Amino acid sequence: MAEAQIPMLVEVAYATPVEQKIFKVNLPQGSTVQEAINLSGVLEQFPEIDTDNLALGIFSKACKADTVLRERDRVEIYRPLIADPKAIRKQRAAEGKRMGKGGGEVTEDADEA
Predict the structure, then answer these.
(1) What are the tens digits of pLDDT across the range 34-82?
(2) CATH assignment at residue 21
(3) Which of 47, 48, 39 is nearest to 69 (CA)?
(4) What are phi and psi for residue 7, nearest 5 degrees?
(5) Could you give the C-alpha distances from 3 to 10, 24, 92, 101, 106, in angstroms and in order?
(6) Which of 101 and 11 is assigned the larger pLDDT?
(7) Does the N terminus or the C terminus of the chain have fewer Cβ atoms within 10 A?
(8) Measuring CA to CA, which residue among 5, 77, 70, 2 is closest to residue 31?
(9) Total number of domains constituting the chain
(10) Rounded Cα distance, 85 and 27, in Å
(11) How many of the other CB atoms lie within 10 Å of CB of 45?
């Protein structure tokens, strides 16, 4: 006689700039991240999620859709970045050079002191 499998509880989290939602899902042991997303209802509530290019994590650690979940895992669906952080740092550094060291304005009197 086959043993009845005890379901595990996991969460699926997604956030927009104005709202954060956590979906609780009961799944069979051995379920994957993708199965949790599909069964959670997050895709129906947030149709803007691009399912072809999902960036995913479990408790802030990057993972793939086929990662097997454990009891009480929290699957996180990440939105794409609006700006490239590397490009922003370069831009800020260039602006700092134009302003002079320390971020203050450069005056001609400073050279005489």
Answers:
(1) 999 999 999 999 999 998 889 999 999 999 999 999 999 999 999 887 7
(2) 3.10.20.90
(3) 39
(4) -70, 155
(5) 22, 25, 61, 70, 77
(6) 11
(7) N
(8) 70
(9) 1
(10) 37
(11) 12
